[in-house]
Amino acid sequence: MRIVVLAGGIGGARFLRGLLKAAPDAEITVVGNTGDDIHLFGLKVCPDLDTVMYTLGGGINEEQGWGRADETFHVKAELAAYGVGPGWFGLGDRDFATHIVRTQMLAAGYPLSAVTEALCDRWKPGVRLLPMSDDRVETHVAVDVDGERKAVHFQEYWVRLRASVDAHAIVPVGAEQAKPAPGVLEAIAEADVVLFPPSNPVVSIGTILAVPGIREAIADAGVPVVGLSPIVGGAPVRGMADKVLAAVGVEATAAAVAAHYGSGLLDGWLVDTVDAAAAAEVEGAGIRCRAVPLMMTDLDATAAMAREALALAEEVRG
Amino acid sequence: MRIVVLAGGIGGARFLRGLLKAAPDAEITVVGNTGDDIHLFGLKVCPDLDTVMYTLGGGINEEQGWGRADETFHVKAELAAYGVGPGWFGLGDRDFATHIVRTQMLAAGYPLSAVTEALCDRWKPGVRLLPMSDDRVETHVAVDVDGERKAVHFQEYWVRLRASVDAHAIVPVGAEQAKPAPGVLEAIAEADVVLFPPSNPVVSIGTILAVPGIREAIADAGVPVVGLSPIVGGAPVRGMADKVLAAVGVEATAAAVAAHYGSGLLDGWLVDTVDAAAAAEVEGAGIRCRAVPLMMTDLDATAAMAREALALAEEVRG
What we know:
alpha/beta; 39% helix; CofD (chains A, B)
């Protein structure tokens, strides 16, 4: 079975670990969000790709869900001693090496997809990890600072401001001109099922879908497309998805997120058991819906979620 | 008193520490060798400038004489795990931060002299540290590998090969087209004395003198130029200066190095007491010579050497 998964960072990575356990023989292609990539200290940082790579490759800091296990922060402390910022982005020493290798390869002319493949040669994540695009896409967030509206990089909004100010708009700058990375459209065309993990529907999966050709390829693939709600009981399971949902005028409910993806894209939708009452509304919108436990408390619970998603896909396929 | 010092790495840096103690009120400008600069992992590394900066700024690893104190090597280990080399160059985590800042500033358009000044804002070395040039100069060494002559970067010859193969030629590639960095010629013109510390006469001081205009400015400055022999008892005090002296046809003796600089450039020369017999030969070549202890065993011994150099300068001035 060939599965394509659109993934953001922590939520997507953890779901993928469950999927690998639920479907060990599947050929899994992950299309990763690169809209939150950022240049820091002259280095290209790809937080979502790295979170997937480190999580599946066994290098992740399990507690925080991002960054490297057994990490030190000497480079960062020295940069601060030089007065070079930003200090709010937590790059560890081991993590720095990944960005140094990536930046060096990009400078040598390799596209991000080739760089990602080279990095994965080491980590062996057990999936094929593709960036959504080799072109630069950068998610900007419109916020009010001292009474003036300005656009800040998504990481500045998310990490520095902790999404504590209202987001008035979310713009994936460059997305309109971006092309899907080599292999993305082919993987979707050859997929038996497409999954949307409980990643952020706006700044993760939404950004991937904003690359021209990807949404259309998924809609036209003629295979079940099944998503898992990142909203449980009216709040994000983790992260601050409600803040960016508000920016695009979508309520932070499991049903509203399904409607946001829409029945033209989504065939099946899993909501948590606490949101069972929402299932009728989702089904009314033309999307098959099941209520199952959606808390990724451990690997077994996550694998069970992945099995439910695959079962719903088969049910949809009919 | 205004003193200009041409300096390589460890030997130059340690001598400068003694000079600062011997002449605490002097205005010292250091013209640093950049011929052994190297690009590693896409980063610009300036070993000699950093050794001077770290040594005088209190950040040096005292035992090895280069690199940072209290250093860790996580970035390097991770780069090796990615299969990215070279592994023979010992960059520590704290040291990496310096190269990251430097590379970022160079990429933003600052010349190396401005970058060095910015880095020294943090380290406050107590001297004005100038690179010999803002232009790229790279010392290459001609060696025989598997029966074939090829040119390797000086660092490869020095660090990877440990100078264990014969050097047939030493070429400061790019030197002929290089211009002295802003401030270098001015500092020499305004100097009261110019000192050559016991740095490598070929690949450190020789490379600085290979930048058109610097040798001439020193010769024309009309002030005492005094050097300290890096050769004691027929062998280098540290490092492998004898290997590169052989490449340029100069014997590894205190007198031969003085003659190599020449009386057109050098007014005074300090040899170690064990080489007292060589003093007559040096004086015969028109260079005032004194035999004094030249082992930089501690700060006091080094300060005494600096005082001897300044005393010889005054004697030459007459």
